[in-house]
Amino acid sequence: MCQQITVTTTTAMDQPERGESQAGPGRVQVRRICCMGAGYVGGPTMAVIADRCPDIQVTVVDLNTARIAAWNDADLARLPVYEPGLDAVVGRCRGRNLHFSTEVEAAIASADMVFLSVNTPTKTRGIGAGQASDLRWVEACARQVAQAATGHTIVVEKSTLPVRTAETIQTILAAQRPASDGQPQRTFSVLSNPEFLAEGTAIADLEAPDRVLIGGEDPQAIEALAGVYGQWVAPERILRTNLWSSELSKLTANAFLAQRISSINAIAALCEATQADVREVARAIGADSRIGSKFLTAGPGFGGSCFQKDILNLVYLCRHFALGEVADYWESVVTLNTWQQHRVSRLVVQQLFGTVTGKRIAVLGFAFKANTNDTRESPAIRICGDLLEDGAQLAIHDPKVDPQQIAADLRQPQAPASPAPVSAHAGGGERTWIACPTPEQACHGADAAVVLTEWDQFARLDWAGLAERMRHPAWVFDTRGVVDGAAVQAAGLRLWRLGR
Ligand code: NAD
Ligand code: UGA
What we know:
Elements: E1 5-8, E2 32-36, H1 42-52, E3 57-61, H2 65-71, H3 86-93, E4 98-101, H4 104-109, E5 113-116, H5 136-148, E6 152-157, H6 165-175, E7 185-192, H7 202-207, E8 212-215, H8 219-229, E9 238-241, H9 243-274, H10 278-286, H11 307-320, H12 324-351, E10 360-364, H13 379-389, E11 393-397, H14 403-410, E12 432-435, H15 439-443, E13 448-451, H16 463-469, E14 475-478, H17 485-490, E15 494-497
Parallel strand pairs: 2-3, 2-5, 3-4, 5-6, 6-7, 8-9, 10-11, 10-13, 11-12, 13-14, 14-15
Antiparallel strand pairs: 1-7
Helix pairs in contact: 1-3, 5-6, 9-11, 9-12, 11-12, 12-13
Bound molecules: nicotinamide-adenine-dinucleotide (NAD) and uridine-5'-diphosphate-glucuronic acid (UGA).
């Protein structure tokens, strides 16, 4: 059903420097890769491919000129994505066989293989709003590839997509410019190659993946892509499936991972009610090799750009195929996650004598997890939103998140560029916030510190020093289980820890 698609073009250009991939039978060797989308996936993934495959020229393109400029910034500390180790990889390859550009068509035209690594957020309007994936960027890419490609091009779905999206891409590629006599043939093969990296560990995940998944039905195209990964990934870790299994496996993997988090968060709430300790429960069940120990850390709920969106996408697909009970089952994972986030903010308000109006609350951590500057769907957004709604004054510190991003996420005016220690307890019930460059400034005059991201440095905070700056009785709410509880209590602070 999904073999090579042939299109005869009127504008195909000869590309003598390209690999053999347009040469028909024989081993397909990839020489030039174009990746559409220079985001959290496209940038790091292509940087590692370039690093591990010095014979392949890799060009990452994006419509966002500021993002491309940041990828080309001479100062590697200013790359648009923060990932441990990424600067070193980019430093080794950039200008050699790794390029960042806004010249989308030229990069497509010279590529043997085009990765689609663009955003696929949840639709916000129209049919499927709130659940289905918005595929407008993927569709636009397919149209651009159809217009600009030359010779044979392998199109690789790297974005996370609803099952059967490859069919749409194939239809678009096949529909461009009907055959015309005497023109060189343009052909396409579509593969699915979902990405499983996690932010914060992207480089390690890419360099030593548990598995690489390639879905497709054109054996030559599959082997061409397997040949790229085969330069550093062991053969037994490169899995080949049909297109639809590959697309669905990505949604399923995220759904299973998120389900574990909702499961342990549900148990954490029960632990709090029964004096059980969720860490002990997690250790006890994780020792069962059938369950496994990973993804059993209770917290303020999962965030990140993908878990919620991918589960909702799955829910939408299930409803589409009239599988209502299956849809309800997966939807409950998201429902519990939302509940968990609201539960944290409710708890803070309750402990602070039922009101936070005019009270200053230090928020430590805004990223959705440690070691990333990404705030998409961060639990901090909903929790801070609730506290602001209740009239709190938030003093937010995150070591990597840009205050402008926090302002945008909270739909608040931007904080002053260099916030002076503010006077706390305005008492007017204003919904305000400031960004603080240090935890000390955030805690100045605060009634509570709420730890929302598990940054390493929060395990080493000087609670005695912080306590001196806070208004007493003062609380520490640790939603990540990272703070030194003994030091908090020794400093005379009240401590609430999630799941205990
Ligand atoms: P992102 O928003 O960081 O990056 C997407 C980029 O694509 C943006 O910079 C955007 O400007 C660009 N773009 C959009 N249309 C374009 C076009 N026509 N031509 C060129 N560039 C275009 O998104 P991301 O986090 O990198 O995610 C990309 C995909 O990967 C999504 O489908 C996501 O579900 C999936 N994914 C993400 C992660 C993750 O950790 N972020 C992990 C695995 C899979
Ligand atoms: C997740 C998956 O782990 C990746 O395999 C996948 O490729 C990616 O989504 C994606 O498709 O975007 P990511 O969202 O970057 O990666 O980070 P995770 O480490 O999975 O964390 C997600 C959220 O769950 C974070 O908010 C994290 O704090 C939370 N979490 C994670 C917990 O609360 N407990 C855990 O035990 C693990």
